[in-house]
Each structure stands twice: as C-alpha cells, then as structure tokens.
Specification:
2 domains, 7-stranded mixed β-sheet, globular, 15% strand, alpha/beta, Rossmann fold, Adenine-specific Methyltransferase, domain 2, 9 helices
Length: 270
C-alpha cells in the first residue's frame, strides 16, 4: 500500500532497505515522525501507533479514518486555481472557525496542489508553499496527484486499527520487543514541517532517546543524513549507509537524473 499524501523526505524508495533490517519477530509497531508514513502504509501493521507534531497532518489521518468519503468529496469542491489556492491556504491566517473535516479537506487539497507537494510552515505555523498549477483528476480517476476512493477506504481501514497521536516522539512508551522506526527531520537540511524547528540539540536528544530504547530491549531503526555528527551520536550502533534519490514531487523530466544523497539507517538490530 502506498502513502496517501506526498511528504518531503518520504521513504518510499528506502522501504525495502529499512525492512531488510527488521528483526525476525516483533510485537507492536511505532512510527513517530510519521509524515507520509511510507513504511507504515507498506507494512499495514495490526498493532501500530503513529505520532507526529504536525497537527494538520494528524487531523487529516483521523478524518481519513473516520470520514474518508466526506473528506474526499469536500476537498474535491475546491477549484484548482491560484485564486482558490491562495484563499484556502489563508485559512490559518484568519480568525474563522472550521470543522476538523474542513481542515482535513484543506490539507489534502493543498498537498495535491502545492508546489512539489510540499508542506512547509513558518514560525507562526502558517502554510506558505506557493501554488503549482498541477492538472488534477477527480474522485474516481487514478493519478499520481489525487487519491481514489478505494485508496482512502483502504487507508481508513488500516487507520481504524492504529493509535494516532499529535505529540512528540518522546511521548511513545514501547515495551521490550516492540519496534520503533524514526524518520526525523534530517541533520543539516530544511526542517519546516512544523513551527518547532529540529536543530542539532534536538538530534542529540533523539540519539539519547534511541539509546534508552536499546537499554529497554526495544528494537529501533532510524534514518538520517550521513554526517560526522550523526555518526558520532550513534557510535556503537549498527550503521548502514544507503543512497537515495531525493524527490518530493515524484516527477522528473525524461533523461534527468535524481540527485543521489548518502543517508544512514541506524539500528540496534544486528
């Protein structure tokens, strides 16, 4: 199963590399920093918890769980024009109340019409990505840009058996033999997914958290940039270097080569 939204730094191309590091058996699955949830949707686990600090993203997943068809039909009412896009994007700058379903429809619409499918906010938590002008298909038609009813219904069933929280990664409480996959904002890169920025100190704190998981007998796998600091933070862990083509939009011109970025998968599984 593929992710239902695009997300900067999504792990669609690394899913098999990550799964190759899995233990033979594990109990519950946790994915803080869930973002687009490429690994989560690929696994379709029965006992999962997904977490993210992005309140708009989490509300979207909750509405997919509870109201998938109403969500898609509501989002479909927004016209694919720069004028409409600017108007809908401005909701977070206005003192006008909207329902959770309306916010989720806005999220889906902006995700599919924003430049490169990017979700970026400023320090006031206002979405500020410009309009892209993609040609969108509607409801029943299958394209890379818009989810179909079938896809949202499948995602809804998965999310019905999933714990969903808007919170920090530190809020999760896994037990021995559970598996945690962490995909934080990468070191030395853009981190505008939420108004809270993930800096070098945040990276150090996350490393401490992972060592605590290891001490409790919890399996973890973490992805990040291949940098000197990251390698130092996780010294003693199993570190696997991988190359991944970075793309948000998922599109490139014929003959154009995606840039290959050296990344690391870090785990206490050997």
């Amino acid at each position: 199963m593929l992710p239902i939204v695009k997300w900067a730094g999504g792990k669609r191309r690394l899913v098999n590399n990550i799964k190759a590091l899995f233990p033979e058996k594990f109990n519950n699955y946790y994915e803080p920093f869930v973002g687009g949830g490429a690994l989560f949707f690929n696994l379709k686990p029965n006992n999962a918890t997904i977490v993210d600090l992005n309140d708009q993203l989490i509300n979207f997943y909750e509405q997919v769980r509870d109201n998938p068809i109403d969500l898609l039909e509501s989002s479909d009412t927004f016209e694919n024009t720069a004028e409409t896009y600017t108007k809908i994007r401005s909701w977070d700058r206005e003192a006008i109340e909207h329902t959770d379903l309306e916010w989720a429809a806005r999220f889906l619409y902006l995700n599919k019409t924003a430049y490169s499918g990017m979700w970026r906010v400023n320090k006031n938590n206002q979405m500020n990505v410009p309009f892209a002008g993609y040609k969108l298909a509607r409801l029943e038609q299958k394209t890379e840009k818009y989810s179909t009813k079938i896809e949202l219904l499948e995602a809804s069933e998965l999310l019905k058996r999933t714990n969903i929280y808007c919170a920090s990664y530190e809020s999760i409480i896994p037990n021995e033999n559970d598996l945690v996959y962490l995909d934080p904002p990468y070191a030395s890169t853009w981190t505008g997914y939420t108004k809270e920025r993930f800096n070098s100190f945040s990276q150090e704190q996350l490393a401490d958290f992972c060592f605590d998981l290891d001490a409790k007998g919890v399996y973890f796998i973490l992805s990040n940039n291949h940098t000197t600091n990251i390698l130092e933070y996780y010294e003693g862990m199993n570190i696997v270097s991988v190359k991944s083509g970075q793309s948000i939009s998922g599109r490139h011109d014929k003959g154009e080569k995606r840039n290959k970025v050296l990344e690391v998968l870090i785990t206490n599984i050997y």
